[in-house]
């Protein structure tokens, strides 16, 4: 039985690599490994009690995602400059405002119900972590309502590239009411079948969030010398 179990693990290294990719990516996005942190496959494999091969594959995939960069002894968590963050947001604003306008045309009653459910949850809490998760859920629900998997996949990658600098829970808590109002205006425009308004409200929302991230990033750089 032990031999069969070992053989099964050897026969499906990519499944294990996918699991390691998901685990490490989650840790990156919740701030477990701040930008600049060195990740060594030997240390990670020992910590997780898995072979080095799936960890190596996971780290290579995370580099392709733009979350890590190669270092002499492993990979470092990618640190983005303010200009790089601006470039990411330029692409995100174009794509997600288009997704909002597309959702006006393509959304189903179930999509609209999901968006309204997310809004209702946002009104029911002031917990910073819950608000951050709710914000993430809102954008996922909106992209789903656009029914364009390619745009959703690209946006997911762009989100991750800026989120590794931190979820900015404090700022989300301070501006919770503003965020809720912006989200509500976007959903109202989708429900009203107003693509122009949906696009404009999404652009305004993301422009504000972009500016907050840039200010926070510059503050971090100043604090770090």
Automatic annotation (TrEMBL):
Residues of the HTH gntR-type domain: 14-80
Pfam families (UniProt xref): FCD, GntR
Tagged with keyword Plastid: no
Xref: Gene3D superfamilies: GntR ligand-binding domain-like, Winged helix-like DNA-binding domain superfamily/Winged helix DNA-binding domain
Keyword Methyltransferase (UniProt): no
Gene Ontology MF terms: DNA binding; DNA-binding transcription factor activity
SMART domains with a match to the protein in the record: FCD, HTH_GNTR
Domain of life: Bacteria
Classification via InterPro entries: GntR_C (IPR011711), TF_FadR/GntR_C (IPR008920), Tscrpt_reg_HTH_GntR (IPR000524), WH-like_DNA-bd_sf (IPR036388), WH_DNA-bd_sf (IPR036390)
Name used for this protein in its record: Putative GntR family transcriptional regulator
Lineage: Bacteria, Bacillati, Actinomycetota, Actinomycetes, Kitasatosporales
